Amino acid sequence: MSLKGRDFLKLLDYSGEEILQLLDLAAELKAQKKSGVPHMLCEGKSVALIFEKTSTRTRCAFEVAAHDLGMHPVYLDPSGSQIGKKESIADTARVLSGMFDGIEYRGFGQDIVEELARYASVPVWNGLTNEFHPTQILADMLTIREHFGSLAGRKLVYMGDARYNMGNSLMIGCAKLGVNFAACAPAEYFPSEELMDAAQEIAAETGSVLEFWTEPELALRGADVVYTDIWVSMGEPEEVWDARIKALFPYQVNAGLMSLAKPEAVFMHCLPSYHDHKTIIGRQVGKKYGLDALEVTDEVFESPRSLVFQEAENRMHTIKAVMAATLCDL
Ligand code: CP
Ligand code: NVA
Predict the structure, then answer these.
(1) Same structural domain, 260 and 155
(2) For residues 250 and 265, what is the distance between their CA atoms, to the nearest angstrom?
(3) Quick check: is 145 catalytic?
(4) Does 277 participate in catalysis according to the annotation?
(5) What CATH number should be reported for the domain holding residue 40?
(6) Is 56's C-beta closer than 6 angstroms to any atom of ligand 1?
(7) Which of 133, 170, 315 gets mutated to test ligand 2 (max ligand atoms within 8 A of its CB)?
(8) Atom of ligand 1 nearest to the CA of 270
(9) Residue of 113, 163, 233 to mutate, ligand 2, most atoms within 8 A of C-beta
(10) Phi/psi of residue 296, each to 5°?
(11) Quick one: which of 1, 12, 96, 232 has the most CB atoms within 10 Å?
(12) Surface-to-core class of residue 273, CB atoms within 10 Å of its CB (0-12 exposed, 13-18 middle, 19+ buried)
């Protein structure tokens, strides 16, 4: 089925079959890239990449993928454009639609990227909002499928702040693809009731089991994938560290927690990660609270069970699939 002309704003908008179609395309484009087969499927097109928050992976993935597809990417950084300050999202959408064939947006509320898409006449892709990070989930699912050879029936456990972009999106992605999902955190860090209900409705159709636990030893039983994310996300105030460390430290992914999952379980993280003191924030927060690492220990992060760099590379292959499928004739 053709996805040409579609936006990619959240996984709720896509069926499980469509998500699998994007994963298959990503796997095909990855194989072509690895074997040096050119795939300039969108030659001559241009894409705008709006980043109201910082990025390494997502920006590089869009830029390299655009180049591989024969497109010209233009990066609009968090401070160097008129967006929001002097020009509304609705006006920006119409201006950029006149010059570009597609628009990526990373920023704050999901309502902003939805508004951008409403006013744009070209496909809009969500490069992360507070609520959702759908392109990350494609990379995660491709990585799990590459590692285990299958998705449906596997179990992914998300440790930590499950009510933000990563927890929300993983829950929906797992539900859509028949992957069993458990969120493990204090109950106030679970996704909203409304989103949990929506996910349960999807899961009822796909056979995915969704669970919400406060106890790691119950959540991690039978886990194939142990997943976490930073405890304080981009755009959140520094003051929340205190409460987050107190609430989420029992959910730090360390060797003890990994031993509660299946022996063959893998570790995943969207990155960036505070697993040591080699970053400014990791060092400042680590020293203040007397911790060597925050959401994951260096031991687990650097272990052979960690798929984090394969996962990061897959951002590029999956983002390439999203752009090719929604922009070009395949
Ligand atoms: N995982 C991810 O989105 O990374 P960046 O913030 O570096 O884009
Ligand atoms: N929850 C993180 C994800 C980073 C990819 C954030 O929003 O900062």
Answers:
(1) yes
(2) 20
(3) no
(4) no
(5) 3.40.50.1370
(6) yes
(7) 133
(8) 1
(9) 233
(10) -145, 145
(11) 96
(12) buried
CB of 230 closer than 6 angstroms to any ligand 2 atom:
yes
The protein residue with its alpha carbon nearest to ligand 1, atom 3, reads: 58
List, for residues 114-153, the tens digit of each pLDDT value: 999 999 999 999 999 999 999 999 999 999 999 999 999 9
Alpha helices in the chain, H assignment, sequence order: 16-34, 57-68, 89-97, 110-119, 134-148, 165-177, 193-206, 216-219, 241-248, 255-258, 280-289, 298-301, 308-327
pLDDT in tens, 159-201: 999 999 999 999 999 999 999 999 999 999 999 999 999 999 9
- Domain span including residue 244: 136-312
Annotated active-site residue 67? The verdict is no
Q: What is the pLDDT of residues 79-110, one digit of tens each?
A: 888 998 899 999 999 999 999 999 999 999 99
In short, whether 12's Cβ falls inside 6 Å of ligand 1 is: no
Residue 329's pLDDT band, with cuts at 50, 70 and 90, is confident
176 in the same domain as 106: no
Please state, rounded to an integer, the average pLDDT across all residues of the chain. 97
The predicted pLDDT at position 78 comes to 82
The pLDDT, as a whole number, for residue 85 is 86
User: What are the C-alpha distances in Å from 114 to residues 8, 10, 108, 280?
Assistant: 10, 9, 11, 34
- The pTM (predicted TM-score) of the whole model is 0.98
The domain tally of the chain equals: 2
C-beta of residue 131 within 8 angstroms of C-beta of residue 110: yes
